Amino acid sequence: MEEGSGWGRGKATAVLVALLALAVPLAHAGEAEARPTQGRTWTFADTPSWQDEFDQPGLPDPTKWGYDLGGKGWGNQELQHYTDQLANAFVEDGVLAIVARRFKRAGKTTYTSARLVSRGKGDFQYGRIEFRARLPVGRGTWGALWMLPTENRHGGWPHSGEIDIMEHVGHDPGQVHVTVHTQAYNHTIKTQRGKQAHVADHATKFHRYRVDWTPDWIRGYIDDAPVFEFANEGTGPDAWPFDQPFHLLMNLAVGGTWGGAQGVDDAAFPAWMEVDYVRVYPLLQP
Hints:
Residues 40-286 form the GH16 domain. This is Family 16 glycosylhydrolase. InterPro entries: Beta-glucanase-like, ConA-like_dom_sf, Glycosyl_Hydrlase_16. By secondary structure, this protein is mostly beta strands. The protein has one helix at residues 2-34; strands at residues 43-44, 50-52, 66-67, 80-82, 89-92, 95-105, 108-113, 115-117, 123-124, 127-134, 141-149, 162-169, 175-181, 193-198, 207-213, 217-222, 225-231, 246-254, 271-281, 283-284. A hairpin with a 2-residue loop joins β6 (95-105) and β7.
């Protein structure tokens, strides 16, 4: 009787071990699906799928660009009022100019500028995004070439993310920043992920500012030199909301919590940011 019971226990144990042996690989397979495959080699097409070379003078191409309008502080206590007027955004000699201007009326100083967006006209999920630009100068200027989610699938900022391809504030001349913002990593909780590089002739020469964006990582470059990398940890959208379409933004802000941290030099206006081209190269399957 005891011998038979022992044999039964052994058989039951063997069956349990066999079941566990099956379960463990299945659990690992589920984890592998949830995590990015960091070893994948990603490449990009040689020809852009979307671009603007700014060859047509006048207002920016309305089939590619719209405008964010108004003077609401834009979440950063900025001073400018964004318009869709030719005085603030125009194409001339193959270059887009975004111009921030200062006005003084009835003793009050106001600023106008432009914020161009490709939302609904150029929305992308993954790819190589490159701007060739000459950056503004002057204390109080805050130029940016960047991306925001088109649908906010994971919720409002910062839940759905932000990709800053280039940011430059005039009180820190030549320091160009490449940054991402997510719910887990953003400046409001002092966990923001970003890097900067010094570009001494940022205002006198055109330079190429780009990100390569894949399901596994986002990498930032200036003139093809690597500056920044942000990896997909595989922990979900709080850390990686970059699994949805984003659109492009180009703007020149005035003042604000960062741009105006050392005040605004009124002698710097009008201030200019110039963009020679914008090109988006699609991601190819590994």
